[in-house]
Design brief:
seven-stranded parallel β-sheet; homodimer; 39% helix; 325 residues
């Protein structure tokens, strides 16, 4: 961090991304961090607007996230779902009793005409979050998973109900072409003081791609002087969490950080891989992507802040070489 | 029940009415009992349709009612409200974690286009309730409490938020003139085999009056051969539960079972008072209302079934004298 005052925009999916976002929040003052969460996995369930990635990041920044489960709130109870089971309601998506308050209040605020960005700001303020968190868009975008059997699945049906069992052959993002980056996201990308755009270690296909594919986003990223740095979610050939590696295999890609770098090629200016994958550095750099090797497995808060620091230092190095287009 | 096979329609508000309804359910087979619940106290809260009286009766019939609180479900937890408090949401109306499942599923089913009657039937079936429970109407009716200060309060604001503190000068039932009795309620009233219409010991002003004031209801009650019998909710000058006695004082009425009988005069064929009020029997009968004296304080299930039995016997006595108009 030293003498520079980096202004960082971090793009995050769920758990892995939220960990690095928390690392940034611990080393950057509020005005120097903007976290942008994927909303492509949002869906309506039981009449409520559910934003899994956005809430995982929000709960993580508020330090009320459930560390054991990796989703939902700490100190959670499950009596709502128990009663709904008795009533033969839809219970495949477990909504905790505390978590429900978020969805019901969000629905109430959205009904007043507030945008998802505005609602998110309100919820974050009330949870005491200092840093800014925005959804990637205020428009509805729905990730659809195309499967080998020909069936198309809404993302949460694939992810939660079917536990990622169906074989994936591709993805579709309904509503994406008509969606706009949220005002906060766009303003962040266009901020002349921006010094780093970080793609957190999240699922490239279903957490990051929807964000990058939002109309105007890549153009704004390329026009920024801030380098775009992605942190590999694949370490030692496996995903720390979630179905990223399984998806890569099903899509015919090698399950490696190198394959992730190739996936992002043309969209990033730098790549971060784990110590375990040090041998891939030269292959990735041969793609024209400067790469650093560090610990990316974030078990402790110190791991999170150290990785965040390394990424910002890397951005500082790269900033002298990026030529905005 | 000896030789008669009574078919009973019981009109109920919340707790007190539900106790007697349960008594009937224990002595009558499903096809011989229809319970009609007040929905004048229904309201939307946090975007959800809340039906306090209907749910109290439903939970009571399903034997999952919270006996300590007198509302909500047994084994309830309060983590939703705790989280909503943290989020600075509206928490004056305590929704339990289990109770929420009812409201969310009801909202979901109503959204599909089902009527409140249909939704109630579904919820009752899923809770294993054998007897039929219907809302008084499928149309929205909202009880408004007019207060001494000139302020008009939505019923639950008066009842729960303001704990019945404001002084009452009158009531208004928004939507009532345009509402119709629910199909089940109307069919029950018009059933030629009906042998008793029972007004359970519920608040006369805010639980029973909205039901009786539904267009067509009194006419159908008068046209029925079944006598209409009310059980006094006032015992020894006080209400067993709720603000009925306080309301009577504020409305300038004596706080007595006699005043309740006068309130129902012209709408009932018989009245039931508690042993404690035996001295009022002659004054009530002087109004032209045949009256029986029995224990109406239902502390145990035996109390409930015994009172239900007494009421049905009384209806049988009265049935020979009623001349439908």
């Amino acid at each position: 961090m030293s003498s520079i005052r980096p202004k960082c925009l971090a793009i995050s999916g769920g758990v892995g991304g939220a960990k690095l976002a928390l690392g940034f929040a611990h080393i950057l003052p509020p005005e120097q961090l903007l976290v942008v969460a994927n909303t492509g996995d949002d869906f309506r369930h039981l009449g409520l607007p559910i934003c899994p990635d956005l809430d995982t990041v929000m709960y993580t920044l508020a330090d009320i996230n459930n560390k054991e489960l990796g989703w939902g709130q700490q100190g959670e109870s499950w009596n709502f779902i128990a009663a709904l089971t008795q009533l033969q309601g839809e219970t495949w998506f477990a909504l905790g009793d505390r978590d429900l308050a978020t969805h019901i209040l969000r629905q109430q605020l959205l009904t007043t005409g507030a945008s998802l960005s505005e609602v998110t700001r309100t919820l974050c303020q009330r949870l005491g979050i200092q840093h800014e968190l925005v959804p990637m868009t205020d428009n509805p975008v729905a990730t659809i998973v195309q499967t080998r059997t020909g069936e198309s699945l809404a993302f949460q049906h694939y992810f939660v109900r079917d536990r990622c069992v169906p074989e994936v052959i591709g993805f579709e993002f309904e509503g994406l072409a008509a969606a706009l980056p949220s005002p906060g996201f766009l303003a962040g990308l266009q901020d002349p003081d921006l010094s780093a755009i970080v793609i957190c270690p999240s699922n490239p296909f279903v957490s990051v791609d929807p964000v990058l594919a939002l109309p105007g986003t890549l153009t704004a990223m390329r026009a920024s002087e801030a380098p775009v740095i992605a942190v590999s979610p694949i370490v030692g050939g496996v995903a720390i969490k979630g179905p990223a590696a399984k998806m890569m295999a099903e899509l015919g890609m090698p399950q490696s950080a190198l394959a992730v770098a190739k996936h992002y090629q043309g969209r990033i200016d730098g790549f971060v891989i784990d110590d375990q994958d040090a041998d891939l550095k030269s292959d990735i750099e041969a793609l024209g992507i400067p790469t650093i090797v560090t610990n990316t497995v974030m078990l402790t808060l110190a791991d999170r802040t150290l990785l965040a620091t390394r990424v910002l230092d890397f951005a500082h190095q790269l900033s002298t070489t990026k030529t905005p287009s």
